[in-house]
Design goal:
alpha+beta; about 350 residues; single chain; 11 helices; 4-stranded mixed sheet
C-alpha cells in the first residue's frame, strides 16, 4: 500500500501520525483484482473481495472491479467505474496501436445491460452567412448510423502460485495482461474482416488500398519518399478529419524509418505488429468510435488447458500441448474485457501496401 504521512497537531498536544492513501491508479487496481482472484483460487477460505479489503484497505477501486465482474453493475449506475474503464486504454497503449488510436478517437461508455447502441455518421449541411431579415437556408444532413454491438476480448494467462506471492506481482500481472490483450486488439481493429457475432468489423473493411506515389514502393525511406506517401494517405482522409487529428499506423519497421525521416511532423505515427511489412494506414480520429469496459476475471487451479494462443475451433485438447493446472501448481487467470468499435465514415480511413521499410 502506498501511503503518505500526515501530521495533525495543535499547540500543546502530542503529534500524531496518521495515514491516507495516495491518489488512486485505476489500472493498478485492475492488476490487484487479478491478484485477489489468483490468491483466492489457491486459498478458497477467502473470497476475492475479502482478500482485497484485507490487503489493500485504502483502495476502493479494486473492490469496484471485483464487484463489477460478479453483480449487475454498469457504467450508468456506478460512475466510479467510468474512470477505471478509461484507464484500460492507456495501459494497453504501449503494446497496442489500436488502444493508442482509441485514446484520441471518440470514446463512448457501455451502459446498463448488453444491448447494442448506434452512433451517427453525419455529414452536416453547409451553413452560409445571410443578411438581417433574409430567409435562412434549410438543409438536411445525410446520416448513416453505425451499430456498435457488445463484444469482448478474452485471454488466459497462466502463472505459478509463487508469482502471486511476490512483491512485484502487481507490475508483472499488469504487463502480462496487457501483452496478452494488446496484440489481439490490434489484429481485429486493423483487419479487413466484415465482422461477426464474435468481433466487430476491421476498420479496413470495404476500403480499397491506394496506389503508392509513383505507382510503386519508394526506393528508400528518405524524407521525400516518406513525406510523399504520408501526404497522400493523410490527404485521402483530410476532408473527414477537417482540422482534427490524423493518426498514422504502420508496420513496425516502416514506422521506425518514417519517424526517423520526418521527425516531429505534428502527427502521431504508431507501430503495430498486426500489419504486414510495408503497410501504412491513415485514420481521421473523428471517424472512429470505441467503447472499452472494465475487465472481469475468472480463475482455476484444476483446469487442463490447451497451451495454444490460436483458436482451435471445437477441437480443444485434440491437438497441441496440454497442461494441468493442478499437476503443475499453477493458476489459470482468464480476463474478459468488454470492447467494441465502429468506423463512422469510410472516407476517414485510407491505407497502402508494399511501401517497403
Amino acid at each position: 500500500m502506498n501511503t503518505v504521512a500526515v501530521e495533525k497537531f495543535r499547540p500543546g498536544e502530542r503529534v500524531e501520525l496518521t495515514e491516507r492513501p495516495l491518489k488512486g491508479d485505476p489500472m493498478r487496481s485492475i492488476a490487484r483484482a487479478a491478484i485477489a482472484y489468483g490468491h483466492c483460487a489457491l486459498d478458497r477460505a477467502m473470497r476475492p473481495d475479502e482478500y482485497a479489503e484485507k490487503t489493500w484497505p485504502f483502495d476502493a477501486d479494486v473492490a469496484r472491479v471485483i464487484r463489477a465482474a460478479t453483480t449487475p453493475t454498469s457504467m450508468a449506475n456506478t460512475a466510479a467505474l467510468v474512470e477505471i474503464a478509461l484507464a484500460v486504454l492507456p495501459a494497453l497503449a504501449p503494446v497496442s496501436a489500436a488502444a493508442a488510436l482509441f485514446e484520441v478517437a471518440l470514446k463512448l461508455q457501455f451502459g446498463a445491460g448488453a444491448n447494442a447502441f448506434s452512433i451517427p455518421g453525419v455529414i452536416p449541411p453547409n451553413a452560409v452567412f445571410v443578411g438581417e431579415g433574409l430567409p435562412k437556408p434549410v438543409g438536411q444532413g445525410t446520416s448513416s448510423a453505425q451499430t456498435m454491438n457488445p463484444h469482448k476480448i478474452a485471454c488466459i494467462v497462466v502463472a505459478s502460485g509463487e508469482l502471486f506471492a511476490q512483491a512485484a506481482a502487481e507490475t508483472m500481472l499488469r504487463q502480462m495482461l496487457a501483452e496478452a490483450a494488446g496484440p489481439a486488439l490490434d489484429a481485429a481493429v486493423f483487419g479487413s474482416g466484415a465482422g461477426s457475432a464474435n468481433v466487430p468489423a476491421g476498420i479496413l473493411n470495404g476500403i480499397v488500398a491506394l496506389t503508392p506515389p509513383g505507382g510503386g514502393p519508394p526506393a528508400s525511406a528518405t524524407y521525400d519518399n516518406v513525406l510523399a506517401f504520408m501526404g497522400q494517405l493523410g490527404g485521402a482522409v483530410a476532408r473527414v478529419a477537417g482540422n482534427g487529428e490524423i493518426v498514422f499506423v504502420m508496420a513496425p519497421s516502416l514506422a521506425v524509418t518514417s519517424r526517423l525521416a520526418v521527425g516531429n511532423a505534428g502527427y502521431k505515427i504508431l507501430a503495430s505488429s498486426a500489419l504486414a511489412d510495408g503497410t501504412a494506414i491513415a485514420v481521421a480520429a473523428n471517424a472512429l468510435a470505441s467503447a472499452v469496459g472494465v475487465p472481469g476475471f475468472e480463475t482455476s487451479t484444476q483446469a487442463t488447458l490447451q497451451m495454444d494462443d490460436a483458436a482451435a475451433g471445437g477441437a480443444l485438447l485434440s491437438t497441441g500441448p496440454a497442461s494441468s493446472m493442478f499437476q503443475t501448481a499453477q493458476v489459470a487467470l482468464k480476463m474478459l474485457t468488454p470492447a467494441t468499435w465502429a468506423r463512422r465514415a469510410a472516407g476517414g480511413v485510407a491505407y497502402m501496401t508494399g511501401l517497403g521499410a
